[in-house]
Amino acid sequence: MKRLALLIVILSGGLLLYATKDFPSWGDPNSPASTHVSPRYLEKSLEETAVPNVVTAVLADYRGYDTMFETTVIFCAGVACFMLLRKFEPEERDLYYRHIPTGLTLHIKGEKQIPSTSKEFEKIDAIWTPYDFIINTVSRFLVPFIQLFALYVIAHGHHSPGGGFQGGVILGASIIVLAVAFNLRTAVRRFGEKIDGIMSALGVFIYAGVGAFCAILGAEFLNYRALAKILPVGKVMARSHGILAVEIGVGIAVMAVMICIYNNVASEGKFDEGL
Amino acid sequence: MVLNGVVMVLMFCGLVFFTGGGIGILRFPDFYTRLHPAGKLDTLGSLLMMTSVAIFNLHEITLSNALTSLKIMLIVVFVFISSPTATHAIMDAGVRAGLRPWEKGMPRG
Fold first, then answer.
1. In what order do the strands lie in the sheet with A95-99?
2. How many other C-beta atoms lie within 10 A of the C-beta of residue A155?
3. Closest residue of chain B to A134, computed from CA coordinates
4. Residue to substitute from B82, B83, B95, interface A, most A β-carbons within 10 A
5. Domain that holds residue B6
6. Which terminal residue of chain A has fewer beta carbons within 10 Å of its beta carbon, N or C?
7. Does A131 reach chain B within 8 Å, measured CB to CB?
8. Does the beta-carbon distance from B85 to A138 stay under 8 Å?
């Protein structure tokens, strides 16, 4: 069986290598990829969409459908992670608390537990490592800057490398840093599970909603030109603003899905402790 | 002219530190000692390199150039804060996981 699999792998690999011979050579100006649409994008995108960054113009405007379903794929990944991993029934397990004034650790078995509002007792993870002062302070100091940079990346995608996907990942990372430096409960308290689920759907909704809104205003789906009817700008600038709205939707969806996947995987779906 | 000289000196110093870091990562015997060049020399090397790039960018002083230089210096500030912290976190994890430091006579890990 193993030999058969190896044979198949070698054969298909050889076939692929054989087929690469027919590819156009690297950077060939006469290759099909750079003769049909790319020259038009490169020459016309600035005057048609008022976006200096061609990549953003192609991604969110000319190929808007593609990016919309990419966002949907990310949303589906988050939903799949949630469905597969999330557990709601509380398991019977050992709980650990720390008495804050004395520093004693309490180990409770069974169903009983100390209410989370208690001022004297603090819940700690089963595999507890003392929080490191340096890491805590630095991560708390850096989180706002990370979020500010993420917003910059989303908003500045028209002019420089960046956009919704990158900015969304950075936003998600700012919450994940909290979960790594403190614990998962701290991060979930700052950015709850419910709001996370709502935002991941909201991002996709914003994207598809902007498209549908264009259709309502009388143009094709995702043709941002139609937004000029309600925005006080010309048709070209309307396309630029439509791209920004769509990028915000992408950013929200990606951020929420990143946090959802991290929380589910790190805590094995129990959302109480992990990493 | 003076500016170019300053840029060259800073860039050269940065390169020296980066080279030292690279050699250190390859040559030191174990996890902890390897993290030492990776954390410290990279931070100082990038500090010097970025400063030199920021100064080079100011060959003619306009508002946009100054803004770009400011952004480069901001990168330096954040690298200077986050890189040693990351090294510290990795070291800490190594100690907690029970990895013993290398001593003379032990095999190089």
1. A105-108, A95-99, A121-124
2. 16
3. B85
4. B82
5. 2-96
6. N
7. no
8. yes
| Overall residue count recorded for chain A in this entry | 275
Burial code (b: 16+ CB inside 10 Å, e: under 16) for A66-100 equals ebbebbeebbeebeebbeebbeeeeeeeebbbeee
User: Least CB-CB distance to A132: which of B78, B81, B92?
Assistant: B92
Q: Tell me the C-alpha distance between A97 and A122, whole Å.
A: 5
The answer to whether A254 and A202 have CB atoms below 8 angstroms apart is no
How many residues are listed for chain B in this entry?
109
Which residues of chain B are within 8 Å of residue A132 when distances are taken between CB atoms? 88-89, 92
pLDDT in tens, A193-230: 899 999 999 999 999 999 999 999 988 888 888 888 88
Q: Which of B81, B88, B92 sits opposite A142 (nearest CB)?
A: B81
**Residue A259: is it exposed, middle or buried by C-beta count within 10 angstroms (0-12/13-18/19+)?**
buried
> Hey, is the C-beta of A104 within 8 angstroms of any chain B C-beta?
no
Burial classification of residue A193, based on how many CB atoms lie within 10 Å of its CB (0-12 exposed, 13-18 middle, 19 or more buried): middle
Inter-chain residue contact A132 with B88, CB threshold 8 Å: yes
B58: in domain: yes
Number of domains in chain B: 1
In contact, A253 and A71? CB cutoff 8 Å: yes
The answer to whether residue B16 is domain-embedded is yes
Measured between beta carbons, which residues in chain A are less than 8 angstroms from residue B82? 138, 142
Give the ipTM.
0.81
Model pTM greater than 0.95?
A: no
CB contacts < 8 A (A, B)? 19
A271: left (phi over 0), alpha (psi -120 to 50) or beta: left
